[in-house]
Design a protein that fits this description.
Layout: E1 38-40, E2 44-48, E3 54-58, E4 73-78, E5 85-91, E6 94-99, E7 104-108, E8 118-123, E9 135-137, E10 140-144, E11 150-154, E12 169-174, E13 183-186, E14 190-194, E15 200-205, E16 219-226, E17 234-237, E18 241-245, E19 251-255, E20 270-275, E21 282-287, E22 296-301, E23 306-311, E24 323-326, E25 332-341, E26 348-353, E27 357-362, E28 367-371, E29 386-391
Amino acid sequence: MFKRSRMLVLLVTFGAACTGDSATNPGVDTTPHASAAIVAATDFSCGLSTSGVAYCWGANNSGQLGTGVAQSAIVPAPIVASTKFVAISGSHLGACALSTGAAVWCWGQTPGTVLDTVRTPRLEPTSPHPLKTLTVGRLYACGLDANGAAYCWGNNIRGQLGVGDTVARTAPTPVLGGLTFTQISAGFWHTCAVTAAGATYCWGDNSFFEGGFGSGVALVTQPTPVTTPQPFTYIAAGALQTCGLTSAGVAYCWGTNTTAQLGDGTTTDRLSPTPVAGGLTFASIQIAHNNQRLGHACGVTRDGLVYCWGEDTNGQTGAAPDALCDAGITGPVACNRSPVQVKGVSGAVAVQPGLAHTCAIFNTGTLMCWGENQEGELGDGTTADRTTPAAISGGVAFPTR
């Protein structure tokens, strides 16, 4: 199997738990949802159980497991926190979770400008208004309050916070424009959101056309409209790509396409939203946060099937590759240029692609992963790669709605 170079570079024993927030905020749904209960990132994964306990597994070089110790874990290990959570999100080497009291806790490489190692989850600064949703990008995070107003904080090197400049913020800061959104998604260095009317806005990096602003625009520092063929009701920002869904579940993607991450049957970069091949209708779609011009994407169809496309060097698409794609960095890599069905599973309710692996939650409450496993990121108690989904160890139940 292909072993990529990393961008940086047993079950654990726990230390003392950090103090949690016990209050429940009325603006936050205290029941975890599947779409906000799964993380697959750089060599690690996390999941949020039905009871609101966060578990992580895989590599732990930057404290991304949140277990308070340095050891990696090849089976799910609960993070060191006494509070319960309603949402979890992660990117690259860090993760954050939103508590029932609307507090945000982060670990690993946390929002900011320093490549820190936070092994015990740390409470983030309070938002001016309690957050109801949470999304994590590369060293930054964003969320929406109960009214749909957006707040972001952390690294802002490419304007991804949407605050009108490229200066980092240490606390949640209102995104400019006075817009209200129904959903927001943090990519690697760009952010996108959709309004109740189906309008799409993005801000941050556009070096690879991921912002949807066409050529000649390197970055924007505040929400900017993206021209879409139809209104979008769902948005997913990845590393160097973005995808959106219409109310009918039709998928469109744009940005760099070196390993067929856009799923349009080609490896041609797209400056504007382009239909994903296959005529499928999706309930959700996600893109890996991998800025090496590699990566893959996956979606859950409305009938609960999982389809993936893009890079397939380690079986992360769950199907045999159909081509070699030249990413221009490592040489040609195995890929699938159009969506391929992940065989042997059905009833999916959420999916998340990582660096070279993929995880999904099913309507049985089971979380399964496949692809690369050299750091134990599949959570099955081994370090063997898998080309087909395997349930993580431990028997933890995950949200099914």
